[in-house]
Amino acid sequence: MKSSEQYIESLEKKLKKVKGLSSKDVKQSEMIRSLETCRHLQNSQYLASNDTMNDTVTVDEVTNSMFVAMQRKLNPEKQALNPLELLPLVEDDVLSKQTETQDGNLT
User: Fold this and answer.
1) How many other C-beta atoms can be found within 10 angstroms of the C-beta atom of residue 16?
2) Is 71 within 8 Å of 78 (Cβ atoms)?
3) pLDDT > 60? residue 52
4) What are the φ and ψ backbone dihedral angles of 53, each rounded to 5 degrees?
5) Residues 97, 98, 104, CA angle at the centre, nearest 5°?
6) How many CA within 13 A on the CB side of residue 32?
7) Which GO terms describe its biological process (predicted)?
8) Closest CA to 68 of 79, 56, 81, 54
């Protein structure tokens, strides 16, 4: 009887390991503490480094990329999903030409 119970217990332990439910599961507070220390370490390394912004990247490029990223968040429906969406739909607009000629004839 004991051997079968031990066997079942060992199989349950193996199943927990396979599922990732070991007794060493990370608790929420431990995870948060670990992430905080990692963030503080990264911030201190960033502040300690003497690296400056790459000379090839100008301030205009940085602000432009920030603007584009902000526009994507604020107005996702107005953003192009692929390069084809950036092409003009109508290159030879007949209606606008007619109105231009009519406006020209009226004056």
Assistant:
1) 13
2) yes
3) no
4) -65, 140
5) 90
6) 3
7) cilium organization
8) 79
